[in-house]
Amino acid sequence: MNVPPSLVRLVDQLARLPGIGQKTAHRLAFHILREDPAYAHTLARALEDVKANIRFCQRCFGYAEDELCPVCRDPSRDTGQLCVVEQPDNVFVLERAGVFKGRYHVLMGAISPLDGIGPGQLKIQELENRLAGENIQEVILATNPSMEGEATALHLARLLAGRGVNLTRLARGMPMGGNLEFTDDVTLFQAFSHRQTFGGE
What we know:
Strand order of the largest sheet: 4-3-5-6-7
Distance between the termini: 64 Å
CATH topology of the largest domain: Dna Topoisomerase Vi A Subunit, Chain: A, domain 2
Number of strands: 7
Shape: elongated
Largest sheet: 5 strands, mixed
CATH class of the largest domain: Alpha Beta
Structural class: alpha/beta
């Protein structure tokens, strides 16, 4: 079957996106073709802009267009609560659910010895610096309920013990091996509402 090369290239690039197979990539490509040319230009500009303008927040390491992300700049956020997550994507999941009104700290990963990722590769020192410099009363460990996430939470619990902050962990209800990115809003609400004290030995 002969297909125009430009269409093949578009399908190939769309198929590289997570969760997009060849059939979905074809459907998306044909949708773009059917739309007004202005839509394709707007889409292309949006892709270029996000790659050119998005950086990491200098305080929490979430996604930002300026020095600080919108959450860190928001004076209405509860500065006494700090939610620790693994990846910047997790911030968007929690913000979409609307269950948390404090601030975030992104570790940029989780402890995974098999992948050569130890505490030194994560933003843990930066977390300690924030605890020393900000008036934080509660640290909520919202790492993923996976082996790596649990290992990271346990390491942080041991590290932060005795720092004078209330250390909590998201309540169970999130499936083991699951991912914040794919957790529904109701489950997230229950997890935040029933979070429990978490401490290392």
